[in-house]
Amino acid sequence: MSLPPQTTVRRLGPGDEEVVRTLAEQAPQTALLADERTIFLAAFQGAEPVGFVFGYDLPRRHGKPSILFVYELEVSTAFRRQGIATRLMNELRRIARARGTEDSFVLTEPDNAAANELYASLGGVRQEMVMWDF
């Protein structure tokens, strides 16, 4: 009996456009792979991409020079509750810290129990904010 392939996490960059297309639900913006302000990580089960996290290093006008905005995090349904999202978030934060960005934030819906549970488990502090869409 063979063991399932190990889950690996790696940063995506130019040349990984097909991986981004595989993970996308809509037409992806693959040019972001070459943008140094973005961090795009994918989790793989063997060669199959099973999850990703994507964040922006946002410059600030005061305080610390930048803050990491975790824009999107997703793990395929069959691979949830296996620690993949935690690994993705930890690696994203490690890369950001290595680049000099210590603080980060993420937006989620109040009723997204799984996401809120994950962010709390990672040491996140829930804020009560109002967001306006234009």
Radius of gyration: 15 Å
Characterize the biggest β-sheet.
5 strands, mixed
- Cα-to-Cα separation, first versus last residue: 55 Å
Q: How would you state the average pLDDT, rounded?
A: 92
Question: How would you explain this protein's 3D organization?
Answer:
Helix 2 (84-98) links the parallel strand 4 (66-75) and strand 5. The model has no long low-confidence stretch (mean pLDDT 92). Helices cover 23% and strands 28% of the residues. It has helices at residues 17-23, 84-98, 113-121; strands at residues 7-11, 38-45, 48-59, 66-75, 104-106. It has one domain (7-121): Aminopeptidase, CATH 3.40.630. By secondary structure, the chain is an alpha+beta fold. It is built from three helices and five strands. Strands 1-2-3-4-5 form a five-stranded mixed sheet, with helices on both faces.
Task: Provide a quick synopsis of the model.
This protein is an alpha+beta fold and 134 residues long.
Features:
Aminopeptidase; 5 strands; alpha+beta; 23% helix; 134 residues
Give the SSE layout.
Elements: E1 7-11, H1 17-23, E2 38-45, E3 48-59, E4 66-75, H2 84-98, E5 104-106, H3 113-121
Parallel strand pairs: 4-5
Antiparallel strand pairs: 1-2, 2-3, 3-4
